[in-house]
Specification:
heterodimer; A: alpha/beta; B: alpha+beta; 7 helices
Chain lengths: 652, 181
């Protein structure tokens, strides 16, 4: 069996089997390969199908999104992180009156710089929204809200990527219009309220005066009943006056809040020292403390606080409101005022040891017409609008206000205003005029009026006319009345009128037009005119040559002072404040102005001077070229509400 | 174990000894495959152990020596069969370091079901390399022969020290050091 042939035979047999095995292995591998290939093809087909389905789904989702964006009622503008506009929707095209999208995008970019700035300035933090009003073509107004767009990466561990901004613009022209109508309505209503109120208060004052000066002294007050009646009548009149004043304040507050809410409030932001404002408020309210032996007020201010951009008058209003509230509700203890820097804010705290506010009332008090306490049992004092106005004012400063309090232990009112600049304040345009044309404009005609003055009262409201007549006549003036502009003009022609008190809102012809006619007639243009109205002072009054502007109120004394002054000087003249440093230089100018009959007040360039200039309520402010910081002085003056219609002249 | 190893083993016995001896050890072993092997087939590794044992008995040469010699022979087969593996590496170190990452990867493309050992390496210096053989089967001697042949192939000059980490002959550390010139 082990012979070479058998060995070879066995070897051959093994090789044969190996070959067969290799062949069958090959065949089964081929089959496997075929099946695998088959499956691969099926897989590829299925993949293709899935891709198609997904593509279709994506396309329809995209079409759906596009349809939404294309049909949205607001303009949609998408921009890159650098602020370049990359796409806009049809509404944006319609709103901006664009026709060809390709070069329209760049046009839109040029067209709306404000939009661009809004986009750029919008924070790159998720969820933050920048808002601005933008001008649209055809004098329409849009409200733009811009928010950053963030893409969430597929890998959840990576932070979202800022890929640009999306801006929505809504045409709010109509809302603005309605808003304007609302504000007009409120101001009309308040006018209607103010006028009768002026009469009520005015006559009450006259009655009180007459009773006090003429009637009561002549009454035999030895009679017990009569003496008691006199006391009662006096105190009743006192109440009428107090309540009348309160009503006036309430109307003013309502007007304030209406203005803020409608955006009609004219904000005058300037870089200001908040500590000065706080000091001023403390000074102004200290007198309200009834019993200084029981209530002490202290003030603590961190030194070297930075200037912040605020509307000084409005913030002063807030601080005064907080202080007078503290005083009102604190009968004993302390009122602490502190002003500190706290991170990026300046924080003012007014703490008192007064009656305190219950937790449920702490939020309510910032709402309109809300006061803490039972209104049925406690007599409310104030309008209930003060804190609401304060809150709105602070919100307009990007600040906040809140209260911390414990019933019976006292309250703290805290507000914070950011130190960061709010934006560039609007640079007020400063008019420059040459002196010659100014003098010509102001007029310098002499006249001779050394007799008993006759005053023409022009008002369509008979109660106001009667009130003025009684007040003026009791002060020794003669009066003539006119219930409308035509009658007034007629009166100046037939009578020798020494001064005119003129209402503005009148039927047929308004006060401004009456003043224009009188001031343009050489026969009457020297007659001083005092405008007496419920309206705010406007530019027009100066241009027309009106001498004094007085807002209707029960302050008869002010009116009488002005009448006396104008008549004593015997002619129509105006008040001029001259700022000068080197006195000799402007002396000539001052002399000329005085010779020509102007009332000239000289002030120096100092805080005192500024305060004085504002107090005097001048018609004109002249600044000498030698005033070193003239520009900033003008700015700080112009930003004052009282000075908004005053003409400024810079001497070259 | 892949059929190529069996074929080459029988080839070795036939050429180094005789076709008669090859036939004799096949007959003496109890082989499920009957001793017929195709290179692309896969067979129980026990068969090669039986064949080696029979050969050892017939030739009075120790099993480790036989297996190591087989490893050296197998290397020359690989050089002929897979010349592409030997193009790039310029030294024995370079080649040995690539066993797991390259050579075995390539082998798997041809024989998807091949059960290959792992060769972890640790380069102590440019003159000292530690190669760790880890396998499910006791063929450290085969690895030893292959490593030795590799060194010879690339010009020699290295010594191989062996450290057994397991009695089963399936986990061994080879310390390959350059010999002092």
């Amino acid at each position: 069996m082990n012979d070479p042939v058998s060995i070879l035979e066995r070897r051959l047999e093994r090789e044969k089997r190996a070959r067969e095995e290799a062949e069958s292995l090959l065949e089964s591998k081929s089959r496997e390969l075929f099946v695998a290939n088959q499956e691969l093809m099926k897989l590829a087909e299925r993949l293709e199908e899935t891709v198609q389905v997904r593509t279709f789904e994506l396309q329809s989702a995209l079409a759906h999104l596009n349809a939404i964006i294309n049909n949205i009622a607001d303009a949609v503008i998408v921009s890159s992180p650098s602020g370049e506009i990359t796409s806009i929707n049809p509404m944006a095209k319609a709103m901006y009156r664009l026709i060809d999208e390709r070069h329209d995008i760049s046009r839109l970019q040029d067209l709306d710089d404000k939009l661009f700035k809004l986009t750029i300035n919008t924070s790159k933090k998720q969820g933050e929204v920048g808002e601005a009003e933008v001008a649209l073509p055809l004098e329409r107004i849009g409200k733009a809200s811009t928010s950053p767009i963030f893409e969430i990466p597929a890998d959840p561990s990576l932070p979202p990527i800022h890929i640009g901004h999306v801006t929505l613009i809504r045409d709010i022209t109509r809302e603005k219009e309605i808003d304007r109508m609302k504000t007009d309505f409120i101001s009309n209503v308040s006018h209607e309220l103010r006028t009768p109120l002026t009469s009520v208060l005015g006559f009450t004052k006259i009655i009180k005066k007459k009773l006090d000066e003429t009637i009561f002294p002549n009454v035999n007050n030895t009679e017990k009943g009569l003496s008691k009646a006199i006391t009662q009548v006096s105190s009743n009149l006192e109440i009428i006056l107090e309540e009348g004043e309160r009503l006036t304040n309430l109307i003013n507050d309502v007007l304030d809040i209406a203005k803020i809410e409608s955006g009609k409030m004219e904000w005058q932001f300037s870089e200001s020292d908040l500590s000065e404002i706080v000091e001023k408020a403390v000074k102004a309210t200290q007198g309200l403390i009834q019993d200084t032996s029981k209530v002490k007020m202290s003030l603590e201010i961190e030194p070297n606080l930075p200037l912040i951009l605020i509307d000084q008058n409005r913030i002063l209003q807030v601080v005064i409101n907080l202080l007078s509230n503290a005083i009102k509700f604190t009968s004993e203890g302390e009122i602490n005022v502190s002003l500190f820097r706290r991170k990026k804010y300046l924080r003012l705290t007014v703490s008192d040891t007064g009656i305190g506010i219950s937790p449920e009332n702490q939020e309510k008090i910032f709402e309109k017409f809300q006061q803490a306490g039972e209104t049925l049992t406690e007599k409310p004092t104030g309008s209930g609008l003060g804190l609401s106005i304060s809150k709105q004012i602070l919100e307009h400063h990007n600040g906040q206000i809140w209260a911390e309090s414990e019933l019976g232990k006292g309250s703290s009112f805290i507000f914070e205003i950011p130190i960061a600049r709010l934006g560039v304040s609007e640079d007020h345009h400063i008019q420059s005029l040459d002196l010659e044309s100014l003098l010509e404009h102001l007029g310098d005609k002499q006249s001779d009026l050394q007799k008993i003055a006759k005053i023409l009262i022009v008002d369509d409201d008979p109660s106001i006319v009667e009130l003025l007549v009684q007040n003026l006549e009791s002060n020794g003036y003669r009066t003539v009345t006119a219930s409308n502009g035509l009658e007034a003009i007629q009166a100046t022609k037939v009578e020798q009128i020494d001064l005119i008190i003129l209402d503005i809102m009148m039927p047929i012809i308004n006060g401004y037009d009456v003043a224009a006619i009188i001031k343009n007639d050489p026969a009457t243009n020297q007659i001083p005119i005092i405008v007496h109205t419920v309206l705010e002072k406007s530019d027009r009054s100066y241009k027309l040559g009106i001498d004094r502007y007085i807002t209707k109120s029960a302050d008869v004394d002010l009116l009488l002072r002005e009448i006396d002054f104008l008549l004593r000087n015997g002619k129509s003249l105006r008040k001029i404040v001259v700022f000068d440093e080197k006195e000799s230089v402007s002396q000539f100018l001052i002399r000329v102005l005085k010779e020509r009959g102007f009332e000239v007040i000289e002030v120096s360039d100092s805080q005192n001077g500024i305060d004085r200039a504002i107090q005097e309520n001048p018609d004109l402010v002249i600044l000498d070229s030698f005033i070193s910081n003239r520009k900033s002085l003008v700015r700080s003056l112009r930003l004052r509400k009282e000075m908004e219609n005053v003409l400024f002249i810079l001497l070259g | 174990m892949k059929g190529i190893v069996f074929r080459e083993f029988i080839e070795l016995v036939e050429t180094k000894f005789s076709p008669e001896l090859a036939d004799e050890i096949i007959q003496a072993s109890n082989l499920p495959s009957g001793g017929s092997y195709t290179g692309v087939g896969t067979y129980d590794h026990g068969e090669i152990l039986q064949l080696v044992t029979q050969l050892s008995q017939k030739t009075k040469i120790s099993i480790p020596d036989l297996v190591r010699t087989f490893g050296e022979y197998l290397f020359s087969v690989f050089v002929k069969k897979f010349p592409s593996f030997f193009v790039e590496p310029k030294s024995a170190y370079e080649f040995l370091k690539r066993i797991d990452d390259y050579i075995h990867v390539e082998v798997r493309k041809l024989y998807a079901d091949a059960e290959l050992p792992t060769f972890k390496y640790e380069e102590i210096s440019d003159k000292k390399l530690i190669l760790e053989y880890i396998s499910n089967r006791p063929f450290a001697d085969l690895a030893h022969g292959l490593i030795y042949a590799t060194i010879v192939h690339f010009g020699g000059g290295y010594s191989i020290k062996r450290e057994n980490l397991s009695e089963l002959n399936n986990h061994v550390k080879f310390i390959i050091e350059a010999e002092a010139a």
